[in-house]
Design a protein that fits this description.
Layout (H helix, E strand, L loop, with lengths): L9 H18 L4 H15 L4 E8 L2 E8 L10 E3 L3 H9 L3 E3 L21 E9 L2 E10 L7 H19 L11 H7 L2 E4 L1 E4 L2 E8 L14 H25 L6 H14 L2 H12 L4 H17 L4 H22 L5 H4 L5 E5 L4 H5 L6 E6 L7 H9 L3 E3 L4 H4 L5 E5 L4 E4 L3 H22 L15 E6 L6 H6 L4 E5 L1 H6 L6 H15 L4 E4 L29 H7 L1 H14 L4 E6 L5 H20 L7 E8 L8 H4 L5 E4 L1 H8 L18 H14 L5 E4 L7 H10 L3 E4 L1 H12 L3 H13 L5 H11 L7
Parallel strand pairs: 9-10, 10-11, 11-12, 15-16, 15-22, 16-17, 17-18, 18-19, 19-20, 20-21
Antiparallel strand pairs: 1-2, 1-6, 2-3, 4-5, 5-6, 7-14, 8-12, 9-13, 13-14
Helix pairs in contact: 1-2, 1-4, 1-8, 6-7, 6-8, 6-10, 7-10, 8-9, 9-10, 18-20, 19-20, 20-21, 25-26, 25-27
This protein binds phosphoenolpyruvate and magnesium ion (MG).
Length: 765
């Protein structure tokens, strides 16, 4: 943005004339109706229009609130439904209409009480508040002429200012405010899909706080211009800093996004349009928003997905600019949760969720989300209930609303009535009692009714998770996801930091085993500070350069981790597991790297682990074909059912639409796992499951039926799964398994469920 502003354009000048006069009306002591009457007078006069009218949404219809030019008897009488007539169409589609012959439009609806038959041309724009139309501003003229671009621009700018006037309680009485506001007050129940079980109550907090522009008309245009200059400078600085911090250099998606951001941030056209909007008399925030609105409207007419993506970037940047200029920065996490809260977001990354204060975060409601996405695994580890795929979140919930989240029912109650609150409290009490009963199982062994001991371990990834060992009475940690530390860090964690974490975890676990999985980054666990894409952008990151593939090429990364693990486990047994092994040579290469590091440490007289046990994850289906070759070199094998099923079904584990399409209990998965059990049986390799599947009682029962006797699961699953184990006659199930696998029913879930019911297995439901 240059410092010498160009002279205001005629569009800006025209809007400014009106805004200056509107400013006086807003400041006057007239009552609400009086102000509206003056407003239509001013607009009609300035735009040389015989008619100017304002319709406002009230009790679900657009009511004529003020007019110059139509019959005054029609005021507060003429009402049009959303989608009805030209006015209703404008509000429903949030679009501008500009017609030389109004009656020729298919949506035209004639209202005799208005006397509008005298007028031919018509132009109308929506009055928007919080992304919804709350009214319509329109002008009409006796001549059949189209309004020119400058006039339309002016109308749109004026409509923005009107939205502020309307929101202002002294313009319309509270009872007469929009129906949007009216429904917003009432209790509502939204439904979605349970992603992490549990219940929680708190106030609604938006992850990306929505900024409401309070003042649209500037008192001092020059001051507003300077605010925008300063905001642009700051935003460009931020983008440049982000680009220079992309620590792993050139190429990839990360860089491309930043390049696009940079292009927009320095785009003179964009800053010029904002400057023009300021010239028309708007505040800095309103000017940015005005330009954004205009872009959005143009976008609707473009049908190019690539361009649309770019426009999303511009929206993002525009929001950032508004946040900077209004001083409302950052996500809700950065601002801190002040009370018990339920977080609302379209979607979240695992690192973003980890930024929140666990003590005050009582639940999460997502518009997207799927069961095995990493953010959900993290939420489960944090003990935070989550529901996903909830529609209309942004329109139904407002910041600060009281929410009652019942993930097991897949519902969130918005602004609950006292009766709903009471029912919720009663259910919460029952669920707490059940949890207390399960906690009582803590010290009892995980042994089936017929005496088979099952090894029940937990999955963890953070230092704090280790506390769950004592709380659940689990046998150890069967999967420690080391990448969580990488996800929560702003930079690549140094060896000392890694070592400290591993040592703390081992100390806390005492004599209980911990299986450390080497970093599984990439896929949906992208690191902001590390470009994990290849030189070309990755189209399928889950099947891309991730986990062991990345670690074997970034040898330095794996070497550092190997040393950190060995030094942390000095004097004890170290269990290491490699993720995403696709072929035996990858496992061998990783193991040799560890052996090499052990030799190096020994040659430097460092204290070493007393033993190192090596394991692999089975999560790439193809590995089963060469598993026999790997078995002699393995100490243990852990089946990662999250990735395994996404690859078996070729169905993205993070895709919201596919979240419920395939069942873990389908014969595809069960027969595959039966085959793995058969291959491994007879070897000395310990076989277990560490995916989310094992943490659900019914699925865990089926796994036991297949012959699997080690499960590493989410801590919240230990109680329910142990209750299932202790009520199960395993020999009976195993005797029935061949028939179930050979003749699966069309509803395999029901088949297992019925079996459990017949044999009185405690599934907790
Ligand atoms: C899995 O894929 O099942 C697994 C346990 O690993 P993650 O969920 O971390 O990918
Ligand atoms: Mg995995």
């Amino acid at each position: 943005m240059t410092n010498a502003p160009p002279p205001p354009s005629s569009a800006a000048q025209s809007a400014r004339n009106i805004l200056t006069r509107l400013h006086e009306v807003m400041a006057s002591r007239a009552n609400a109706q009086g102000k509206l009457n003056q407003v239509v007078g001013i607009i009609g006069e300035c735009l040389d229009s015989e008619v100017c009218s304002i319709y406002l949404l009230r009790e679900g219809a657009l009511e004529l609130y003020a007019t110059r030019g139509l019959k005054q008897e029609a005021v507060h009488v003429t009402r049009l439904g959303l989608g009805e007539g030209l006015v209703g169409t404008i509000a429903e589609h949030i679009e501008t209409l500009n017609l030389d012959e109004a009656a020729a439009h298919p949506d035209f609806s004639y209202r005799p009480e208005t006397g509008e038959e005298l007028f031919h041309s018509f132009a109308g724009v929506p009055i928007i508040r919080r992304e919804r139309a709350v009214g319509v501003l329109c002008v009409q003229h006796a001549d059949p002429r189209r309004y020119d671009d400058i006039e339309i621009e002016t109308l749109q700018t004026v409509a923005m200012v009107l939205s502020e006037l309307i929101a202002n309680a002294d313009l319309v009485d509270t009872a007469a405010r929009t129906d949007a506001a009216a429904t917003d007050q009432s209790a509502q129940r939204l439904s979605g899909q349970k992603l992490v079980d549990g219940m929680g109550a708190g106030v609604a907090v938006f992850h990306q706080p929505r900024i409401t522009i309070e003042h649209t008309v500037a008192d001092d245009t020059e001051a507003e211009r300077h605010r925008v200059y300063a905001a642009f400078d700051k935003m460009r600085e931020q983008i440049d800093r982000m680009a220079s911090q992309a620590e792993f250099g050139v190429g990839g998606e990360h860089e491309e996004v930043l390049e696009t951001y940079k292009m927009f941030a320095y785009d003179e056209g964009w800053s010029r349009r904002i400057n023009e909007a300021i010239d028309s008399g708007l505040t800095a925030e309103a000017a940015i928003e005005r330009v954004q609105q205009r872009t959005r409207m143009r976008m609707r007419q473009i049908d190019d997905p690539l361009l649309r993506d770019r426009m999303h970037d511009l929206e993002d940047l525009s929001n950032r600019l508004i946040r900077i200029v209004s001083g409302q920065m950052g996500t809700a996490a950065q601002m801190g949760l002040r009370q018990d809260s339920i977080l609302i977001a379209r979607n979240l990354g695992p690192a973003e969720l980890l930024e929140y204060d666990r003590r005050r975060l009582k639940g999460v409601v997502l518009e997207e989300g799927s069961l095995t996405a990493h953010v959900i695994i993290v939420a489960r580890a944090m003990g935070v209930p989550v529901i996903g795929r909830v529609r209309d979140v942004r329109t139904s919930i407002r910041e600060g609303d009281l929410l009652l989240l019942d993930a097991s029912a897949g519902t969130v109650q918005v602004r609950p009535t006292p009766a709903v609150q009471e029912a919720f409290d009663a259910k919460l009490e029952i669920s707490q009692k059940r949890r207390a009963n399960l906690a009582a199982l803590r010290d009892l062994p995980a042994i089936t009714k017929d005496g088979v001991a099952i090894e029940l371990m937990i999955n963890a990834g953070l230092r704090e998770d280790v506390a769950a060992l004592d709380l659940t009475g689990a046998r150890g940690i069967g999967l420690f996801r080391t990448e969580f530390q990488f996800l929560v860090s702003a930079t690549l964690p140094a060896r000392e930091r890694q070592q400290r974490l591993y040592r703390d975890v081992l100390d806390a676990a005492g004599d209980r085993p911990v299986i450390f999985r080497t970093v599984d980054i990439g896929g949906d666990k992208a690191l902001p500070y590390m470009n994990v894409g290849d030189s070309a952008q990755e189209e399928n990151p889950a099947m891309g350069w991730r986990a062991l593939r990345l670690a074997l090429e970034r040898e330095g990364l794996l070497k550092v981790q190997a040393r950190a693990l060995m030094e942390a486990a000095a004097g004890r047994t170290l269990n290491v597991m490699f993720p995403m092994v696709s072929e035996p040579w990858e496992y061998e290469a990783a193991r040799s790297l560890f052996v090499g590091q052990r030799t190096w440490l020994a040659s430097h007289n460092k204290k070493l682990p007393v033993a190192i046990r090596y394991g692999a994850m089975l999560e790439v289906p193809g590995l089963v074909e060469t598993l026999d070759l790997m078995l002699p070199h393995l100490d243990f094998l852990s089946i990662g059912t999250n990735d395994l099923t996404q690859f078996l079904f070729a169905a993205d584990r993070a895709h919201p639409r596919l979240a419920e399409r395939y069942d873990w209990l389908s014969p595809t998965v069960m027969r595959y796992l039966a085959r793995v059990v058969k291959i491994v049986s007879g070897s000395k390799v310990a076989l277990g499951v560490c995916g989310e599947m094992g943490g659900r009682p019914l699925e865990a029962m089926a796994l036991l039926g297949l012959g699997i006797e080690r499960l590493s699961i989410t801590p919240a699953g230990v109680g329910p799964v142990k209750a299932m184990i202790r009520s199960l006659d395993l020999a009976k199930l195993r005797a029935d398994m061949p028939a179930i696998l050979a003749q699966p029913s069309s509803d395999p879930r029901k088949q297992y469920h019925d079996w459990a019911a017949r044999h009185r297995v405690d599934l907790g439901d």
